[in-house]
Amino acid sequence: MAEALEPLRGLLHRVRDSVSRYRGGEISGLRIVRDPKDAEIDIVAVHGLGAEGFSSWITWDPSRRSSRPKSWLEELLAKDVPNARIMTYGYMSDGSSYRYLVRNVLYGRALDLVKELANQRQRDGSSRRPIFFIAHSLGGWIVKRALIISSEAAGAELKDIELSTCGVAFFGTLSPGRPSSPSPLASVIRRTSGFEDETKRSSGRRASGISSSRAMPVQPQPGDIEWLENQLEAFKAITANLPRLSFYETKRSADGFIVDKGDSMAGSDGKQIGLTATHSDLVKFRGRDENYRTFIGTFREMMDNAKTSGVLEAKQKVFDFTAIHRLEYLTSNFDIPYKLSCESSASVSRELLMSELESILSPPGESQPLKVSIANLWGPPGTGKTTLARQYAEKHHDEISFVFWIYAESWETVVASYLEFANSMVTHYSKDAPRSRVENDLGFTGVNEMLKVKDIFQLEAVRVKSVVRAVKDWLMRPDNGRWLLVFDNVEPSLDIFDFVPLTLTGKIIFTSRDQGATPWGRELEMTAMSEEEAVQLMKLSLAEGALDDPQEAAAAADIASHLSYHPQSLSLAASTMRCRGMSVAEYAQILNNRLPLTTLGSTIDQSPVTKTILRISSMLSMSMIPVALFTANSQLKQVPERFVSVFADMKMFHELGHLDDVIQHLLDQNLVQTPSPPTSPASSLSSTSSFDSFVLERDAREHIRSSLTPDEQLDHAWLACHVCVDGIKQNELDSPTLPEIHDFDRIMAPHAKACYDDWSGVLEQWPNEDDIAWQVLGKVCMAQGLVEQAIGCFELALKQGALMQPIERIQASLSLASLLNQVERFEKSTEILNSIDMASIDKALGFRIAMAKASAAAAQGELDHAENQYETLEHEQEETLGPTDITTVGTVQRLASTLEQLGRLEESRALYRRVYISYQNLFGQAHPMTLEALDDLAHVSRLGNAIDEAESLYTQSVDIKRRTLGEDHPSTAHALQKLAVIDDLRCRYDAAHAKYQTALDIMSRTVGRAHPLYTTTMENMALSSRWHGRSLYDDDYVSPGHVDGASLASKPRAVMRETRRRRAFERAEKLYLDVLRIKRDALELYSEEQVLETGTKLREMYENEDFFEGRRRREVERLLEMLREGRRRVSC
């Protein structure tokens, strides 16, 4: 019996001690110690565990034996800071268990502190007054948690506590631990809470023969300790704008230091201040002793600095600056100035294709289930896909508010296009508002600087994603509906889904060489021109009146036939005729009477430079070759001896301005053709030649290649690769922005591909006089979506890159690993990353490597390994960059996602909270990065059954989106349906139905009924209706023959319940069937598996709900027939 009562005795003992203290005058909650009429600041003192509340803060006069202890907050601090209202926050700091102390006291009392302090300041109108906290021991953890609660609060009353906090003085407050070095939190709780004394009393009883197998555990449970430390992770997000002092004990308590210097918190300056006192005596002074003078001196300095530095005004200004408001200046003008891409001097309207394109982009009535205006132009290179898109924009100029031209070869080029457009938007709207405000309002903070990087991977992925999301949000505003997006040259290797705003507003054109590059929209194949169109194109490209003569017109038709009516070839031929000053008939005669090239001819042999340029060009692709490639400075440290004279001659020709003579000579000999003068990005690389570029004739290229000896071929292949590398490097040096680099890369990509495809195998046998910089060619291939060639180039670079600089080698390894992940060769990617030599590299590059390794582990599903790597990286970044640096926060976000995937939702939620507060402080509440973090936090809270918190966060998300994006924005509707899910979890089905319906109404007007957002919301609503119907079963049903007065009275209620139940199940059934029909009709958007997924949900409802018992078999058979019919339609 005594053994069973032992824990109860301990509890009663602690409660009796606590009650006696509070009866002696202690007050639980907020207590005002001093409140002068002219108060300008608030000071709040919070004691630690096992303390004596207000009596913790005592002083006495050492010169008087009979001196009674008094509160130094009143006796000393009030006199030294006369303009301060001084308050204490008291709480019963004992508990029935360690878990109670951890979860209810250290964690739970923080909310009470925030609420009471906010209410007090609201009552007396001092809500914007500066606050300074003084916290002892683990009372500091209560203060930290209170500031976290305030920081993430939606309401201004609670929010003002953190915004008004200008400093905290921590006395003996423990710093959170880390997995590599756990903190002594368990020991501090045990030694400061009174549990240690209880343990000793229990030990004494056991020594007297009274055993107690159920006595209080000696240590708090590790799970509780880890949980509490995780919950306070978010405090790191606040520290950037929070001045802090930290005082630590230098005298040992009975059992040694409770919180020694190494475990105590650091001040905001990284320093700690030692006081000559034990842990409990840190906040007990002997009058104005040395300890008090040390404290008050530094405390005054912190207060003075807060006033002079304007920390309060800065924090509150940031919050006011980012206060949620409707961006009215955005809605007044969507006409963004734009410049069409690839403008040419001549183009022909292809009426039939234009008519088909117009019918796709402006479909009549209900002709498309998806109801979005998307056209997919596909066909071989040079067939006029880009030209047709440009012509559509020109023709409908008055109907279009702006054209957003997106280069879609790769992730890098799409991102660069988005950044460039975002910068144009900021420039446009900055006429009506300050640029900094526009950047912040739109979610484009620092976009101008982002454009100046030379490598897109130097940017934080989370910032890039945020800009893309912000642009899409702007495009999907319901009142912004007259735009045109052109995704030009979409490569199949690019996953373009995240970049496409599927909405009923606006129009989208995709161009691609591959028919299946994009799954959406109606396809339009770009075929060859008609003879009439081909002749008209040449007529526009030639001098006025060139085809007036019937013979010339007939010759033009002959040329068009010879060139297979290929638009690009026709334009090139016309340009060549104009540059050579020859008639159409003369050019046609050359085409028809061209003799086989058996010799290069004496006129070519007389010029070594002409011969070299011709031979180098033959090693490249059949695409346009920039003349400036032959004028770029060589990047070779030492030119091989047999090429010294070649490079010297080329340099001399360039300096004397003779390159024009060379190109003109090749033109006159019918060996090259020249496109229209300077309209292409080739001119971005400076050249003294009046020719921008040329194209080598196919016959000449094949003849030269076949006529060279193996050694000559090897020499000129080597020269061709080096010429490309030199030109690419020179352009990168000369180009101020990433899009300009990509413009030139777009021209060089076919040549980089030819270098790898045609010559890499041959050049691997080259004696190592000098390596080719394959990594430069690989970078171009990667940026232009040539994944296979990019991988090959980077592998060659690493294999034979002895002359690469260490940083170049690391960057090549990172690029190769990224590409290998893209093609799901995860093991090889990990091998490449693990082979990187980490010696002598800077921190920033080291962080990139660590991030790549962690991401590769996550991609392979090695989540435990990824967690360890993310965690280690976050700690290193925190020490180097600080806890609130955007790079550090991005790593925390990835770690939170990994923990979520591992099912460790409590830890994940704590980290998402830190991310949310960090972004809120960095960018404001309405920024896309903040909103995404808010939604992540709400989502993981819901998964972890923290329903109250999830509901509050989702409500906040809906409110922000309504006020910034508008009531009818798809993102607002999406947030609203997430809130409806919370209503379902609380069995508030009517409220959920109303929210689902509102969301569907918005989506049907903005993104259409076939949009994935719409069908997902419908399926959620169907499930909600099913749950509702299930909840309405009448448990009080009385069978006939057992009728009494009570059952008669309940009969109308039962009938009503049955009616509602029937309606709920019928609504669920109808919703599922509607989704099935939508998915079946929108074949460009939904796969057969996705159709079957919805069908499976409906079948499961038929088979498991009693409501369908009478017609179950019939409905299942009807459903299966519907699915079979859908499959037949797909196969047809």
UniProtKB/TrEMBL annotation:
Pfam families registered for this protein in UniProt: AAA_16, TPR_10, TPR_12
Residues in Orc1-like AAA ATPase domain copies: 348-491
GO molecular function, one term: ADP binding
Record field: compositional bias (Low complexity): 205-215
Statement: the UniProt record of this protein carries the keyword Membrane: yes
Ranges that cross the membrane: none
Gene Ontology CC annotation, any one: endoplasmic reticulum
Subcellular localization, as worded in the UniProt entry: Endoplasmic reticulum; Membrane; Mitochondrion
Keywords: Coiled coil, Endoplasmic reticulum, Membrane, Mitochondrion
InterPro entries from the UniProt entry: AAA_16, AB_hydrolase_fold, P-loop_NTPase, SERAC1, TPR-like_helical_dom_sf
Keyword set includes Coiled coil: yes
Positions of region (Disordered): 192-220
Lineage: superkingdom: Eukaryota
Coiled-coil features, chain-numbered ranges: 849-876
Name this protein carries in UniProt: Orc1-like AAA ATPase domain-containing protein
The organism of origin for this protein: Hapsidospora chrysogenum (strain ATCC 11550 / CBS 779.69 / DSM 880 / IAM 14645 / JCM 23072 / IMI 49137)
Classification lineage: Eukaryota, Fungi, Dikarya, Ascomycota, Pezizomycotina
